[in-house]
Design brief:
alpha+beta, Cystine Knot Cytokines, subunit B, 4-stranded antiparallel sheet, two-stranded antiparallel sheet
């Protein structure tokens, strides 16, 4: 019985340490995801100007993760609270060209028509002071 109680005590300590350490870690990083880009493009088809819907799939980077934020009582603050807020966000941006490889005139696929468009993605990520 004594060994079981000791084992349960050790498990509780380990779980408590895990919670404390995980709450004090900044874990903000690039994550790749695939997204579909859709654009409406004005084109001239057989002498008529019209709109076509074009789509393309692209792998992009995004910033994702957790950053340490806290609010604690303070005798030096007007509100009585000292707040520190950090969020996972981009440190810079880069432009990426996306090939829109499927364009439709209504329901009909337009062959050999592959326009491009640009999107912006993060070039780096970090925990930064939150801004409005």
């Amino acid at each position: 019985m004594s060994q079981m109680r000791t084992l349960l005590h050790i498990i509780c300590i380990i779980q408590s340490l895990h919670v404390v350490f995980s709450q004090n870690e900044n874990m903000c990083a690039h994550k790749e995801t695939v997204m579909t880009i859709t654009r409406s493009i004005e084109v001239s088809l057989e002498g008529n100007i019209g709109q076509v819907e074009c789509t393309g799939r692209v792998t992009v980077k995004q910033c994702e993760g957790t950053c340490v934020s806290k609010a604690k009582p303070s005798g030096n603050s007007e509100t009585g609270m000292e707040r520190t807020c950090h969020c996972c966000r981009e440190t810079g941006q880069t432009s990426k060209t996306v090939i829109l490889d499927e364009c439709y005139d209504g329901t009909e696929l337009i062959p050999d028509f592959k326009p491009t468009t640009s999107i912006t993605e993060p070039s780096g990520c970090s925990c930064s002071q939150c801004r409005n």
